[in-house]
Structure formats: structure tokens, C-alpha cells
Amino acid sequence: MIKSFHPPLRTLMGPGPSDVHPRVLSAMARPTIGHLDPAFIGMMDEIKHLLQYALRTENPLTLPVSAPGSAGMEACFVNLVEPGDKIIVCQNGVFGGRMKENVERFGGVALMVEDAWGTAVSVDKVRHIMQQHDDIKALAFVHAETSTGVCSDARALCRLARDYGCLSIVDAVTSLGGIELDVDQWGIDALYSGTQKCLSAPPGISPVTFSERALIKISQRQTRVPSWFLDKNLVMGYWGGGAKRAYHHTAPVNALYGLHEALVMLQDEGLEQAWQRHALHHRALRDGLEAMGLQMAVAADVRLPQLNSVTIPEGIDDPRLRNALLERYGLEIGAGLGVLAGKVWRIGLMGSSCTQRHVMLCLDALENTLLELDGDIHGGRAAAAARAVYAETEH
After folding, report:
1. Domain map (residue ranges) of the chain
2. C-alpha to C-alpha distance for 118 and 130, rounded to whole angstroms
3. Closest by CA position to 306, among listed 199, 382, 154, 384
4. CATH number of 271-393
5. How far is it, in rounded angstroms, from Cα 161 to Cα 122?
6. How many CA atoms lie within 13 A of 344 on its CB side?
7. Which of 209, 359, 367, 392 might form a disulfide with 62, Cβ 3.0–4.6 angstroms?
8. Using CA atoms, how far apart are residues 56 and 184, in angstroms rounded to an integer?
9. Residues marked as binding for substrate?
């Protein structure tokens, strides 16, 4: 007979999900009410305002899609891409490839700008292809590439899109709450994110936002949006505002309780303070890893603080090490994807998983396991290097 499921206790330091804060878990356990209940509608309005704060935008069309980040991605493309539209898609990792899939599935033409995995999107390459075409409808790129740990220059890329009269579509799944992100100042037209990274809520919700320019594009479509569920013209009857809401779908009530609590925590901490926290613990982790003799796989000027790609030492069995971390320490770190499979580990420092305790546990567990596997590292140095970073901030 199948019995109740009780998951093991884990410390999540992979590419996501991150540890969910007890406040968020507690919020999700509150009594379920109807998705058209006046009290729930009031909370919906608060979620919109909190998302606008987190994204630094006043876009009225800012809401959480009732599905994971991949659905947020599809919501942006299905509303903004029509058959025959030329879309520049930048790929420097796994998730640019998924953007290409979306463009093509909705009848668009993907003009690819490809950069090596582990490097940022080339603004010059994008400019060059824009100069060759006068009918580009949108530029799509990943701000924080989860598969590599690279940050691309969203501000410069969005400025370029404006200069050439096209929209920008931005993947901010891993960047929201972890690094600087400013939708209105940077001129981002459509953006999607996720809740399970730096917001430290469970997976299953995707914040999205659309600019006025994007709304004009949607309103002037020559074809009907091919997805009923993700059609923003329809969903705004439910999320648009005011006390009276048109039924669109049954919202994931308790999951939205959790998102609300996670956003309240971000507001209480302060957006800039959250960015600084991620940067601090990244520095401590980096110094500890390098003192151990490990190498970061991404150049410092484009390196994400919340998603750290670390080169696997020669001779180390990647699955064996990660399994040992999980079994002995309850610690999850991520494997490499695509061309980086077997070459890097991806260590997340996101949201509630971005603390000094997490950094020190990771360094200790990784050092001990590598030594057991006869890894060519320097034992006994990592913790001291990390503590030195923390000591600097105390003075």
C-alpha cells in the first residue's frame, strides 16, 4: 500500500529550486479560499504591486502566470510572435535554444546570434544583424543563463532594440531578486521569470511583465493568439485590477500565498540589499573554491553571483561526487548541461540558499569529498579564505 510521501531533508545549492524559507512554507499551509473571494482578490493586487517593485516597473500588465518559468517564456512569445515575424534570438547556453523553439513553433523566423557557452551575448553581433534587416520585430535573449552562470548586458541589448525599433523579450528566470534588474529604466518590453530561484518560493509560478509597446503589438496582431490559456487579452480580465474579476482559470491559491510571502520578504530586506547579499556570499564561495585549487569556469566580468560554474578537476567522477554530497551531507549541487556536461558543476547561491551557513557547508562537504576521491586540491584552506571575506564586511 502506498503511504504518505515524506521527502528527505536537503540543502539545495543547485541551479534551482533553492531552499524555500519556512515563512513561505507556512504561508502555503494557510486555509484555501476561493480564487474569486474578495480577500484573495485583494492579495492578488498586492502580488502585482510587489512584482512591480521587484522588477522595477510600473507596467500594468505585470502578473504571475499559473505555471512554471517555461510557461512564462511561452506567454511572451505566443503573444508577441506572429507567422513570418523575424525575431533575433541570442543563444549562449541551453535556454536561448528554447527561445528559438518558441519562435519557430509560432511561425516566426529565428535569426540566430550564437556565442560560445560560458561567454556573454555579443552586443556587436546583435547590432550587425540588426543593420542587415529593417524588419526585425523583436530581440530575445537570456539575461542570466542558468546553464552556464553567465550574465549578459541586458541594458545595452534593450537599448539596441529600441534604437532599431523592435521589441525586447528577456529571460530573467535566474536574475530576478539576485542581481540588478530594472525593467523600466532598461526599456525591457517583455520579461518572464520564475519563483524557485532567487525568490525562494516553490516552482510552479512565472512572473511576467509587458510594456506599453508590447501591448500595442498584441492589440494590433493580424492573427489570433494561438494559446487560449496564455492569451494576455483574456487573462487580464482576471488579473487586470478592480474588485470585479472575470473568471479565467482556477488560480493556484496556496502557491500564490507562498509567492506573496516571498515577495514580502524581498520587500522587507530591500531589493538592493538582496543583490548585495548575493554578491557577498558569492565572493566568499569563490575565494574558498579558489583557495582549494578549483577554478571558476566563467570570466569575472560576466559571472553570475547566484549561479557559480566551477570546472571539475581532472580525474574526478562527476556523478559519484554529486551522489556522495547528496547521500552524506544532504547537499545538492548541479551538473553541467549540454556541451558543459561532465565539465562543470553549477553551484547555486539563490534566495534562502544564499547564506554564510550554505557557503561554509558547501566548501566543507566539497573539500572532504574531493579528498576522499583523491582530487588534486589544497585541503584546509577553503574555510579560512571564505571567513576572511566575511571578516572584511564586519569592519
Report:
1. 22-268, 271-393
2. 24
3. 199
4. 3.90.1150.10
5. 14
6. 24
7. 209
8. 6
9. 346
